[in-house]
Design a protein that fits this description.
Elements (H helix, E strand, L loop, with lengths): L10 E7 L14 E6 L12 E17 L5 E8 L8 E2 L2 E2 L2 E2 L2 E2 L2 E4 L2 E15 L2 E2 L5 E7 L17 H4 L3 H11 L11 E6 L11 H15 L9 E3 L5 E3 L21 E6 L10 H17 L7 E7 L12 E5 L1 E3 L11 H4 L2 H12 L6 H8 L10 E8 L3 E6 L4 E6 L2 E7 H9 L15 E2 L6 E4 L6 E5 L3 E5 L1 H9 L15 E2 L6 E4 L6 E5 L3 E5 L1 H10 L14 E3 L2 E6 L2 E6 L5 E5 L1
Parallel strand pairs: 13-16, 13-19, 14-16
Antiparallel strand pairs: 1-17, 2-12, 3-9, 3-10, 3-12, 4-5, 4-10, 6-9, 7-8, 10-11, 14-15, 17-18, 20-21, 21-22, 22-23, 24-25, 25-26, 26-27, 28-29, 29-30, 30-31, 32-33, 33-34, 34-35
Helix pairs in contact: 4-6
InterPro entries: Amidase/PGRP_sf, Amidase_domain, LGFP, PGRP, PGRP_domain_met/bac
Keywords: Signal
Family: Belongs to the N-acetylmuramoyl-L-alanine amidase 2 family.
Length: about 575
């Protein structure tokens, strides 16, 4: 016997998604790579390498060479404002010639920002490599549409339509459950609520409240079953609690609640068609939801039934290939969403596709595809792609564990774990560090992880024993000069902090009891070991010594650091430490 649209809170397991069939429009400017023989660069300058200038800006660079890998490959770019950036290390990757290992080796490509000149240092055995054996690749990433044109429609929130949240929380308590989430959204299921079509715009919130109370208390689903509801006037109501940007596990289609979004039209559409306004609002909701989850509205998806009861249309474990946008009747024994609404689904899919625009052109989508899409380490989109500060975009993957960020000035980059937590603590892209400009990468010593950022020449470094800490500006530049984590200081063990006198800034490090202190008048200098201990005993920067004006350096019989108004010497033979004014 065919039943009307009645949903149950049942599990569904997904089994992959058909490849998108929409064709992306070309970006406004294609990417390009210029190969410049290193021999064509300006002659070698000690400490600065060989310099290449170009009238056409580039934003990334890499190096290729013949023979064995150099011991050192570094580049430094001159930005459009004339300033030179930091030296960037380019680790080697396995070179390929037409898909086979060959003699042409290569470095990783580094993001440098828009630049017109580059310096290259490539050394083997302490000497520059033969310039005739190497080439520099200057990469212009081009420009692409940032993301889909589908915008989030106006939504009447649960608070605005008057949801009594105690119905939900009390039911959760009784059943010892809470809000549940899927892995991603792979499909959309269209419903109708059935019942009358004779209601006013003011009645709609009351209808939604009634459905909520019935589903939550009487059916013991603990909440309204649908993720979104749309009335005939085009009003959009937030449904099931948990966040519209997330894959909230609904209760709207037996066996197919997980990894789907259920959108229900208020009314009954067996003999009456949905209004054009209602269908347009449904299309807007689906365009926003599917674009942000990277789903082709004209494509198909294979789902696996997660319910095995006698009332299920598909037994537990049955694979079913469905349109990405389908009706409740496609997965359940029901006439929902009504014959006349079901007849509208082909046109609805086309309208959703129109609203989504070139949804495959975005940089984060392309990054996701490059990592393997759903089958890769990111998995499906968890929190859909959305706007970020300053014209950027963001999306969350891997059940919320990993994020990707893009801005007009930075490529799409991945950030996760404790580094992401620290970055968010520092106000994420709106903070001093700005957007990430690298993925999370492994440090050369193999012990830590890091991301570099676009703001303040900043980075966040993490190890299991230090946690995650930011380091930036001239303090970071000094640390880099000393050899990064392989140098005498090791890893940062604090963020950059302000000194008690309000003049300087500093980071502490995990090795040699080391720190780097900076002031506008002294610059950045490291201080460590017994010399730092003596400085601390005297009162740090508030002592008569003031701030460090040199790094620690060797003197006959020991080590010394200079300060603004004196110096400290450590005796290697006795271990004694002496401080003196000038």
């Amino acid at each position: 016997m065919i039943r009307r649209c009645l949903a149950a809170l049942i599990v569904v397991l997904s089994a992959g998604v058909a490849a998108p069939s929409a064709t992306a429009e070309p970006p406004s400017k294609k990417a390009s790579v210029e190969r410049v023989p290193l021999a064509d660069a300006a002659p070698e300058v000690p400490g600065k390498g060989r310099e290449i200038r170009r009238s056409k800006p580039f934003a990334m660079a890499a190096l290729r060479w013949n023979g064995k890998n150099p011991d050192l490959v570094e580049v430094q770019a001159q930005h459009l404002d004339g300033t030179w950036g930091e030296w960037v290390r380019l680790p080697a990757v396995d070179g390929q010639d037409r898909g086979r290992p060959g003699k042409n080796q290569a470095s990783e490509a580094a993001w440098l920002g828009d630049s017109t000149a580059i310096r290259v240092r490539a050394e083997s055995g302490g000497a520059p490599v033969d310039a005739k054996t190497a080439s520099v690749l200057l990469i212009d990433p081009g420009t692409a549409q940032a993301a889909s044109t589908a915008a989030k429609p106006g939504v009447i929130s649960r608070a605005e339509w008057g949801a009594d949240e105690s119905l939900r929380t009390q039911c959760f308590q009784q059943q010892a459950v809470g809000v549940e989430y899927g892995d991603t959204v792979k499909a959309a299921i269209v419903h109708h609520t059935a019942g009358t079509n004779d209601y006013t715009a003011a009645d709609s919130a009351r209808i939604v409240r009634g459905i909520y109370a019935y589903h939550a208390s009487e059916l013991q689903w603990c909440d309204i079953g649908y993720n979104v509801l749309v009335d005939k006037f085009g009003q959009v109501f937030e449904g099931r609690y948990g966040g519209l940007e997330l894959p909230v596990w609904g209760a709207h289609a037996q066996g197919f609640n997980k990894d789907t979004v259920g959108v229900s039209m208020l009314g009954e559409f067996t003999s009456v068609s949905p209004s054009a306004t209602q269908l347009e609002s449904v299309a807007q909701v689906l365009a926003w939801k599917l674009a942000g989850n990277y789903r082709d509205p004209l494509g198909k998806v294979t789902m696996v039934s997660g319910f095995g009861g006698t009332s299920a249309k598909y037994p537990l474990g049955t694979e079913v290939t469905l349109p990405v946008i389908h009706g409740h009747r496609d997965v359940g024994y029901t006439d929902c969403p009504g014959n006349l609404a079901y007849q509208e689904l082909p046109a609805l899919r086309q309208r959703v596709a129109e609203l989504m625009g070139d949804w495959t052109a975005g940089a984060i989508y392309q990054k996701w595809q490059a990592t393997g899409a759903d089958a890769g380490p990111l998995g499906g989109v968890y929190e859909l792609e959305r706007d970020a500060a300053g014209g950027g975009r963001q999306a969350t993957f891997a059940a919320g564990a990993k994020s990707a960020y893009w801005s007009p000035a930075t490529e799409a980059s991945l950030i996760e774990g404790m580094i992401r937590d620290k970055w968010r603590e520092l106000r994420a892209e709106t903070g001093v560090l700005g957007y990430p400009r690298t993925d999370e990468l492994s440090t050369p010593d193999g012990s830590g992880r890091y991301n570099h950022f676009a703001g303040a020449d900043g980075s966040i470094y993490w190890t299991p024993w230090t946690g995650a800490h930011e380091i930036r500006g001239l303090i970071r530049a000094k640390w880099a000069q000393l050899g990064w984590e392989k140098g005498p200081l090791g890893y940062p063990r604090t963020d950059e902090l302000g000194t008690p006198d309000g003049v300087g800034r500093y980071n502490h490090f995990d090795r040699a009891n080391g720190s780097i202190y900076w002031t506008p008048g002294t610059g950045a200098h490291e201080v460590r070991g017994a010399i730092k201990d003596r400085w601390a005993q005297l009162g740090w920067e508030r002592s008569y010594l003031g701030y460090p004006t040199s790094d620690e350096y060797a003197v006959p019989g020991g080590r010394r650091s200079d300060f603004q108004r004196g110096y400290v010497v450590w005796n290697a033979a006795t271990g004694s430490v002496t401080d003196r004014p000038y």
